[in-house]
Design goal:
- The complex is a heterodimer of chains A (414) and B (50).
- Chain A is an alpha/beta fold and 414 residues long.
- Chain A contains 14 helices and eleven strands.
- In chain A, the strands form three sheets. Chain A has a seven-stranded mixed sheet, sandwiched between helices. A two-stranded antiparallel sheet of chain A has the order 1-2.
- Chain A is globular and about 60 Å long.
- Chain A starts with a strand and ends in an 8-residue tail after the last strand.
- By secondary structure, chain B is mainly α.
- Chain B is 96% helix and 0% strand.
- Chain B is built from one helix and no strands.
- The N and C termini of chain B lie far apart (74 Å).
- The model of chain B has no long low-confidence stretch (mean pLDDT 92).
- Classes of the chains: A alpha/beta (414), B mainly alpha (50).
């Protein structure tokens, strides 16, 4: 049980500014939560639409487009924080939260639930306005003992889940690929201008974010929800995902270089599927790497991908990670279908694919108004095979992370 | 229970204020950019006239 030290501060700040609303006796907490979340979502949708209209009316003005991009991100973060705090209020009992894992909770859903509640628990109000500094903040108020409790709980959950129909249906409802990247970014034709060198983790922890969106968000925070490794249990959790595993990066660029010679983590192999990588740099990386490093200059949505993996004697991946790459930069539903087919077919049983952020380029979304329902169909078919679980976590910076788990054959349906 | 409901309603209000502050901030920044760019254009024209 963890106590909320900031509770007083959180509650009092806005008291004098707002009129007290009359609560009807028949109103119950769950109904109110659904209603408030709905209202917040509606306001977010309106604000984002208005912001995009502004962005579109200044098509050739990159400075204004960047402002609109940051604004959209801020709106996302504010809504994320409000939802987190609502979730905290829902789960707390006398200022305390029970962090025991729930039955049938996967590792991903557990860490996501805890992150959301902690985020909500630690939000501070300044002059009645949410302070927009939530990035990676959820763990920093915990002492080592509290962190240990949470990560010991996490490690007690089995690495592999059973097929969970009910949960998959809920996640499918939420499945939506948005685009909050402005045209300013899409005008980048050279991939080297983008953040292609994200580290795997941050040994020294993370200070206050200077920008709300950190495009170099490391893999540990974007894929697993862990901003900083402070205690052994956290390290053990990451080791259970990485050590001895075959990892495949989709459009990995020059990222995860710190994983190639890490003393903390030792994968069996890293394979980078990236058509835009410089071959000279591959040789340099291979020379430095202490783990088996492969690079295939091929698109992750290519029809030949599985054949290429086989021809190059690359083992089925235990983990597939796509960070700011695919499906974000794909052009149409055919490529997206092919990407997810490659992911499902190449992934080892018990393996997981993690995609961050859940975004697709504005151009691709604009060209196909039904794109999201077509993507939903892909996932509907995936779930109907009963071979996959999907999970959407709150991610970081208002961007969501999608995890696809290929269920082990010998694990029965839950 | 009532206390929790009140807290949640307060969050909604704070969120609204936050949203409004984000929008105001954006508008202010856009105004500044436009002003800066207009001044730049005027300066360029004046320089060309010299």
């Amino acid at each position: 049980m963890l106590e909320n030290n900031n509770q007083q501060e959180t509650i009092q700040s806005n008291e004098s500014n707002n009129e007290q609303e009359i609560i009807k006796p028949q109103e119950n907490l769950e109904e109110i939560i659904v209603e408030v979340k709905k209202e917040i979502n509606t306001e977010v949708d309106i604000a984002i639409k208005d912001n995009r209209d502004i962005s579109n009316s200044y098509k050739d003005n990159l400075e204004i487009q960047e402002i609109a991009e940051n604004t959209e991100n801020e709106i996302g973060v504010a809504s994320d924080m409000a939802s987190s705090e609502i979730e905290y209020i829902n789960q707390e009992r006398n200022g305390e939260v029970d962090f025991k894992p729930k039955e049938s909770e996967s590792r991903e859903s557990y860490i996501n639930r805890i992150s959301v509640v902690l985020r909500g628990m630690n939000i501070k109000f300044g002059n009645g306005v949410l302070t927009l500094n939530p990035q990676f903040s959820e763990w920093k108020y915990l002492n080592d003992e509290q962190l240990k409790e949470i990560f010991t709980n996490l490690l007690s959950i089995s690495e592999n889940s059973k097929f969970n129909k009910e949960n998959n249906e809920k996640e499918l409802e939420k499945l939506f690929f948005d685009n909050i990247i402005s045209k300013a970014n899409e005008q980048k034709t050279n991939f080297d201008d983008t953040g292609r060198g994200r580290p795997f983790y941050n040994k020294d922890g993370i200070g206050p974010a200077t920008k709300l969106i950190d495009k170099r968000a490391h893999y540990c925070v974007s894929m697993f929800g862990i901003p900083q490794i402070r205690i052994d249990e956290q390290k053990k959790y990451i080791q259970s995902i990485v050590n001895g595993k075959n990892i495949c990066l989709l459009g990995g660029g020059y990222s995860c270089q710190d994983l190639l010679d890490s003393e903390d983590f030792r994968p069996n192999s890293i394979t980078n599927i990236d058509p835009f990588i410089d071959e000279n740099k591959i040789d340099e990386i291979k020379k430095r790497s202490k783990v088996k490093y492969n690079c295939l200059k091929i698109d992750a949505s290519s029809d030949n991908l599985l054949e290429e993996l086989k021809n190059n004697n690359i083992d089925s991946p235990d983990e597939i990670w796509a960070s700011f790459s695919v499906p974000m930069y794909l052009d149409n539903i055919e490529q997206i279908e092919s990407l997810f087919s490659n992911i499902c077919n190449s992934l080892k049983e018990g393996g997981k694919c993690r995609i961050y952020p859940m975004q697709i380029s504005k151009k691709t979304l604009d060209n196909d108004p039904n794109l999201n329902s077509k993507i939903k169909n892909i996932f509907r078919n995936m779930i109907d095979t009963k071979k996959f679980n999907i999970f959407i976590s709150s991610g970081v910076s208002g961007y969501k992370t999608l995890t696809i788990e290929k269920i082990k054959n010998n694990i029965q349906e839950g | 229970m009532e206390e929790k409901i009140l807290k949640i309603k307060k969050i909604k209000n704070v969120f609204r204020e936050t949203l409004s502050s984000i929008i105001k901030n954006r508008n202010k920044k856009i105004e500044e950019i436009i002003k800066k760019q207009d001044n730049q254009k005027i300066n360029n024209i004046l320089n060309n006239l010299k």
